[in-house]
Amino acid sequence: MLVDKVKARPLVPGMLLCMLTCSLASAQPNAKEALVLDSFFERDHTSIDNLESSLRARVPWPVNFSVKYLENPQFEDGAYRESLAETFRREYDGRKLDLVLVASEPALRFAVEYRNKIFPGVPIVFWAISSSLADEKMPGVTGVATPAGTHDTIDLALHLNPEATAVAVITNTSETEKYWLADVHDELLRHQDKVSEIDLVGPPGVDMLEKIASLPPHTVILFQLFPQDSNQPAIGTWDVLAAASRRFPTYSIFPTLALSHGGIGGAYYDATKDSVLAGELGARVLRGERPDDIPVVHLPSLQVRVDWRELRRWHIPESALPPGSEVLFREPGAWDTYEGYIIGGVSLILLEAALIVGLTWQRARRRKTERELSRAYDRLRMAVEAGRSVGWESDLRRDQHRWFGDLQTMFGIQGDNHNGHMGDFRSRIHPEDLGTFETAIAEARDNRRPYSAELRVVRPDGDERWISARGKFYYNPNGEPERTLGMATDITERKLAEEALNSLSGRLIQAQEEERSRIAREIHDDYQQRLAMLSIDLENLNQYLQANSEGSRRLNELWDRVGELGSDLHSLSHRLHSSTLDNLGLMAALKSFSAEFRDYHAIDVNIVEENVPRHIARDVSLCLFRIAQEALQNVKKHSCADSAEIRVECVEREIHMSISDTGSGFDSATVSRQDGIGIRSMEERVRLVAGRFAIHSRPSEGTRIDVWVPVGN
């Protein structure tokens, strides 16, 4: 299909343009020479510009273009074409052409027919050529094929004008127009039962206008009459088109013969993509590819494009258009014209309304917040008074402080309110706790976090009270603290209970150790001695019996069992109270116990020591020994491990003992210390010697117990 065909220029100016181009090209060494041949129609310089830009962007050399327009009323005359070919031959004789680019069927047929005479052997790339011609085999020729829009344009015209009974085809007698008239005949055969075909064939003039005036009602026009620049009659193509489109809905398979000239539109291909693809193919040829090796590129389907003004004039609703149609020349409505003003005005109104609503909401929220703060303050005051606590608030900028609550019990101050300075509070803090309290206050102020501290206060009567103080700083926009709120709770009874409990725990553990020592001594001094005498008696009795008798065999079994019982009692005595710990120290006791543990339970225990002092306080040694005993018992009961390690080292006046295994482990984050008395007992023993205790374990990753105790304890 031929679209957007360019207007003709006289051949001589075209030759002058070519000569000028050639003179410029002579100054560009290694430049490629390309000749563009265009046909008969209104000139579309945009299409040629797109082709040139596309080609130049894809080759590394400069490319000089010569453009020739072949439009002439005599072009259909064979003698004229022979003369034109001879003119081209003389012009390009001795000049090297690298590529010929051809637009539309007449130019392509002319180039193929006379190529051996004008530019023999030069490759040809075409565009704006219908698929039927492009599929013909032409050696040394390739290009871009465009789908014919005849079928879709006729279907569009009959779809938008369902009342039509005739289709009038207005065209001329040129070779190109004859080609399209035949294509229209073939397509209208599909609709011969609905519409009749009326052919108005001839040049524009009075006769053509009279034929249009005599067309019957309910006719649609398919306009195919191309303008000819070299022939300027009194009545031209555009006059005929204007007369036809005033009376009947007019369509064309060429956009330049319909859009913006009174026609409704048609189905068209993408002319820009057509010329860009032709430029790409031309670049491939210039880079050395043979045209015969480059297949013809077929453009995809067409798109319907219509003039919105003509739709309105012929009362055709946009909803009747096929999906994907493009509507051109739409007149802007009120929204399109005043969109900025409308949006600005509405935005201003909405902004003002939002500000009014925001201010109203903020005022209501402020009142609600004030009421809630008042109720919260009342509840806080009642809670403070009921809980025998003391609250305070401070204005740091003015150094004004107010305390309220049970001041009599905690500070010995009469009444339930007191105003004063921070010095009044600090003067009542126990001297040993003042430094800790001031450090907590300073860290909270610098780190912007709440503070808490447990300290003693001294009342005027000399009575000491334990309090738990908590508070928070509030800051101004500059980051300076300006206010504090806090609360103190009397925890004297709790502290006394903790001291009593700690003392009781210590006494219980001490009593347990004393009882263990007593039982161990009794086992060693009494039961083991008695078992030893019994073993001697059994040995003496065995001498009176025959060596091979049944009685002698039974007596030997009893003797062995008594020996095992003695060994077990000895081991039990050692576990209850290790004399090795008292006589040889911690490491010897651990090694002795580990050897016995390995013998009895088949669990290998590795002892590692580093910088352990020989003399360690007895309570510290006993604490570490008991923890090691309990930890190894847990390995046997729970971990299913076949080995364990006890590591003891002295670091910075602290003894660090670590007991680890590679057994089943457990989730130390979820298992409570109250689940087993063993862990609880170990923690209590460490606390009594002012040490630290930690346990690390995960399922399937084993368990490690760490203990740190001061050497001096």
Structure description:
With 713 residues, this protein is an alpha/beta fold. The protein folds into 5 domains: 11-146, Rossmann fold (3-Layer(aba) Sandwich); 150-268 and 301-328, 3-Layer(aba) Sandwich (Rossmann fold); 387-490, 2-Layer Sandwich (Beta-Lactamase); 491-577; 581-713, Heat Shock Protein 90, CATH 3.30.565. The strands form 5 sheets. It has a 6-stranded parallel sheet with strand order 2-1-3-4-5-11, with helices on both faces. Strands 16-15-14-19-18-17 form a 6-stranded antiparallel sheet, with helices on both faces. The protein has a 5-stranded mixed sheet with strand order 20-21-22-24-23, covered by helices on one side. α3 (78-92) crosses α4 (105-118). The longest helix is centred in the C-terminal third of the chain and has 52 residues, at 492-543. The chain is elongated, with a radius of gyration of 55 Å. The model is unreliable at 1-27 (pLDDT under 50).
Describe the protein's topology.
Layout: H1 11-25, E1 32-38, H2 45-56, E2 63-69, H3 78-92, E3 99-103, H4 105-118, E4 124-130, H5 131-134, E5 141-146, H6 150-160, E6 166-171, H7 175-188, E7 196-201, H8 206-213, E8 219-223, H9 237-247, E9 250-251, E10 265-268, H10 271-286, E11 297-298, E12 303-307, H11 308-313, E13 326-328, H12 334-337, H13 339-386, E14 389-395, E15 400-405, H14 407-411, E16 417-420, H15 422-426, H16 431-447, E17 451-458, E18 464-475, E19 481-490, H17 492-543, H18 550-576, H19 579-584, H20 586-601, E20 604-610, H21 618-639, E21 643-651, E22 654-661, H22 677-688, E23 692-697, E24 703-710
Parallel strand pairs: 1-2, 1-3, 3-4, 4-5, 5-11, 6-7, 6-8, 8-9, 12-13, 20-21
Antiparallel strand pairs: 10-12, 14-15, 14-19, 15-16, 17-18, 18-19, 21-22, 22-24, 23-24
Helix pairs in contact: 2-10, 3-4, 8-9, 17-18, 20-21, 21-22
